[in-house]
Write a structure and sequence with these properties.
Elements (H helix, E strand, L loop, with lengths): L5 H20 L1 H19 L5 H6 L3 H21 L7 H9 L5 H11 L7
Length: 119
């Protein structure tokens, strides 16, 4: 039997995490929350409606970066909350913290923006 690579293990864990949250919130609610958090992160960094906000809210590169960072955040959050009784509203609030996290903002500046060639 072929052993799984690290990337395969991480993808499987992320899929398991997503399934857990989809079962809790529902498919549409989970992905709407994902989009809401992604847009909230942009609104923390830009005025809603300015040219950078408008560019990145439809940018595939932004959403790819956001998806990767969110999945890591989601995995760490679920690990930290393992065994804790938490209702859906509290869990949504925990997920929304992502939009205001300084480490994520620094990662955005250092690892995402410096590779963008816009405007």
């Amino acid at each position: 039997m072929k052993t799984k690579t690290h990337i395969q293990k991480v993808r499987q864990q992320y899929a398991t995490n997503a399934d857990l949250l989809i079962n809790r919130f529902g498919y549409d609610a989970y992905w709407n929350l994902f989009l809401d958090i992604g847009l909230a992160f942009l609104s923390v960094n830009y005025t809603t409606g300015d040219k950078y906000y408008n560019h990145f809210k439809t940018s595939p590169s932004y959403w790819n970066w956001f998806h990767n960072e969110f999945k890591l955040w989601e995995a760490n959050m679920l690990k930290a909350l393992a065994g804790v009784q938490i209702n859906n509203d509290e869990l949504k609030m925990e997920l929304m913290v992502f939009a205001h996290d300084g480490f994520i903002e620094q990662n955005y500046q250092d690892n995402f923006l410096k590779h963008q060639t816009i405007f």
